[in-house]
Design brief:
- By secondary structure, this protein is of the alpha+beta class.
- 53% of the residues lie in helices and 18% in strands.
- It has a 7-stranded mixed β-sheet with strand order 10-22-21-20-11-18-19, sandwiched between helices.
- The longest helix is centred in the C-terminal third of the chain and has 36 residues, at 556-591.
- The chain is elongated.
- The two termini are 27 Å apart.
- The relative contact order is 0.10.
């Protein structure tokens, strides 16, 4: 509990004790002394006891109401509570006046504790920020503030310390705890040459790393910025509630005044009876349940997502995600790993050194396709390749003994008048002199979870799963068929992707999502209604352009995000229906004089507590 909550709890306890004196002990004493509590000084003592009790529990609300009125904010819940309870005292309904304030404060305390719990869960994410770094300068270690780290600084990370900035391991191997960043509970094994992200905790051995970013460009800093800004962007539901409360409150105040004045003119001038009904009506009308529980539902949803490694930049994106029926996907790095593997080998001759030749010549290239071939033929011997000439965008030309060796794509074969049969897909051919020895077909690996993700998204009522890629037609078709996508577009430039998403939005007149991870995805991410960036291994521009960041590079997080959005909106709408439904019923009963102040207390505080519990439960429902 914070100081404010402790103060509220003390006020509630003191008020209950004073109410026992006012309602039970003092009347019993008067009765035992055969004195009339309703006469003379004894009555004024009784009123004074109630007044002290009222000030203890309602003093801060009265001051808040006066302060708001002085700033031009008249029609709020503080004004309604103050007006209703003051009139109750004027009509000598002392217990009801105190009880309204008491139960209101109990409800407020309960709501405050609930919000604090949600904030605590999100605040725990804020604690992942590293505070310092150990910089190595001329063999000496100096401890510096994390924001003093520069790119290319060499840093030492001891066991138990947080990785200060994104970096590359120069020396050592260890295990990292990335659970606070990605939601992944399994530790991550890292070795020399691996890229690691800031905020991870070093669990086992000392690491020496080279800083790849400054602190303000690091993954952890971007995460913290996203968390801090998460509640600034409100959805239409939250905006509606705010606007509704501003109109609703003055309307009910006017209606309460009319209820206190007009009916008595037709009911034998019983003003006291109708003023009491009007006061009950005012208490019932307090929009606390709506004003508090709807933002709390969104806040709880955002907190739940953050805990699972899904950063949502505001309630509006939760609301939009619940509505979308179409999601566009980039291919490379999103649906596929972006890492190529050899799918098929075809030897066209009896060349004994086919595998060794292929491996040896591709070892001279830094191209990802070449690396995939080298890895595949890793067990074969390396030959002495000479006079290596890398031809950009086509392949490699070199010499082995007295022969000219070529390894590359169809363009390289054609340029050198080598007879071959052109194959579909991503193909690298190997030729000796003017003869094609064979070829390998490579493919970009589809992510292991991609197919299951598409199946689950369809169950979540996503009707259109569309891939848009710059890759060739046959490659795109192959991926689309394997994942059972609704549609695909191939051989696209970044501006083509943008136009497709724009035209689809205009044609279908509906919200769309887009999932990507590259620099060329940024314009399309900005255009979509809900933009997902895949993991902190994606480009910084893609992350900054997105609305939702899936911190773990796992497509199933997309399904989790959709489910959280669905749960959050269900709870938000349930709260609206519950709050308005109960209030309308109780307003009618209150106007008819059924239930009185006890009904008013339930309609205000009781419904608020139910809605708050409902909102907080969102945090724990899987």
């Amino acid at each position: 509990m914070n100081k404010k909550q402790k103060r509220s709890l003390i006020e509630i306890i003191v008020t209950i004790f004073l109410l026992l004196i006012c309602q039970i002990l003092y009347p019993l004493l008067m009765n035992k002394l055969n004195l009339n509590i309703k006469e003379g000084i004894f009555f004024y003592i009784h009123v004074l006891l109630y007044l002290i009790t009222y000030i203890v529990i309602g003093g801060r609300i009265l001051l808040k109401s006066l302060k708001n009125i002085s700033h031009g904010r008249i029609f709020d819940e503080f004004f309604l509570m103050s007006l209703a309870t003051i009139v109750a005292f004027a009509l000598q309904e002392f217990f009801e006046g105190v009880a309204v304030m008491l139960f209101y404060q109990i409800g407020e305390l309960f709501q405050s504790l609930a919000v604090s719990h949600s904030r605590k869960e999100i605040k725990s994410l804020m604690e992942i920020a590293p505070k310092f770094a150990n910089r190595i300068v001329n063999g000496e270690i100096e401890k510096i503030d994390v924001d003093e780290v520069n790119i290319d600084d060499v840093l030492l990370v001891k066991v138990g310390e947080k990785i200060p900035v994104d970096g590359i391991i120069l020396e050592g191997e260890s295990t990292l705890d990335t659970s606070s960043l990605t939601g992944e509970s399994l530790p991550l094994d890292v070795h020399v040459g691996d890229e690691i992200i800031s905020g991870s905790i070093n669990l086992s051995k000392v690491l020496k790393i080279r800083a790849k970013t400054s602190y303000e460009e690091s993954s952890i800093y971007k995460i913290l910025v996203l968390i801090e800004e998460a509640n600034e962007s409100k959805g239409k539901t939250e905006q509606f509630i705010s606007k509704f409360a501003k109109i609703y409150t003055p309307v009910v105040v006017i209606f309460a005044i009319l209820l206190a004045i007009i009916p008595p003119l037709f009911d034998h001038y019983q003003f006291t009876k109708w003023i009491l009904r009007a006061m009950s009506f005012l208490v019932i009308s307090c929009p606390c349940a709506l004003v508090i529980s709807i933002p709390l539902a969104f806040f709880s949803g955002i907190g739940k997502a953050s805990k699972k490694g899904i950063l949502i930049k505001g309630g509006v994106y939760l609301e939009n995600l619940n509505k979308i029926k179409t999601i566009f996907f980039d291919k490379t790095g999103t649906l596929t790993t972006g890492k190529f593997k050899v799918k098929e080998i075809n030897k066209l001759t009896e060349e004994n050194n086919f595998e060794s030749l292929f491996k040896s010549i591709e070892e001279k290239s830094s191209h990802p396709l070449a690396q995939a071939i080298v890895n595949y033929f890793i067990d074969f011997k390396t030959l002495a390749i000479k006079n290596i000439q890398e031809i950009s965008g086509k392949g490699i030309k070199a010499n082995y003994l007295d022969d000219i060796i070529f390894a590359g794509n169809a363009k390289l074969m054609k340029e050198n008048n080598i007879a071959f049969k052109e194959e579909k897909g991503t193909v690298i051919y190997l030729a000796k002199n003017n003869k094609c020895l064979g070829y390998v077909i490579l493919e970009d690996e589809i992510k292991s979870e991609a197919k299951k993700t598409m199946q689950l998204l369809k169950k979540e009522k996503i009707e259109n799963l569309i891939m848009i890629t710059g890759d060739k037609e046959e490659i795109a078709k192959n991926v689309s068929e394997k994942l059972a996508l609704t549609k695909y577009y191939a051989s696209l430039l970044p501006q083509d992707k943008l136009e497709i998403v724009k035209s689809y939005k205009e044609k279908m007149n509906e919200l769309v999502g887009y999932v990507g991870d590259g620099i060329n995805d940024a314009p399309t991410l900005v255009t979509s209604d809900v933009a997902f960036a895949m993991g902190f291994n994606g480009s910084s521009l893609a992350i900054e352009s997105s609305d939702i960041v899936l911190m773990q590079d796992n497509l199933l997080k997309l399904v989790e995000a959709k489910k959280i959005a669905k749960q959050t909106m269900f709870i938000a709408y349930l709260n609206i229906i519950l709050a308005l439904g109960v209030k309308i019923l109780c307003l009618i009963l209150g106007a008819l004089g059924i239930g009185g102040m006890l009904l008013a207390i339930f309609a205000d505080v009781g419904v608020m507590i139910i809605c708050v519990i409902n909102s907080i439960m969102n945090f724990y429902i899987n």
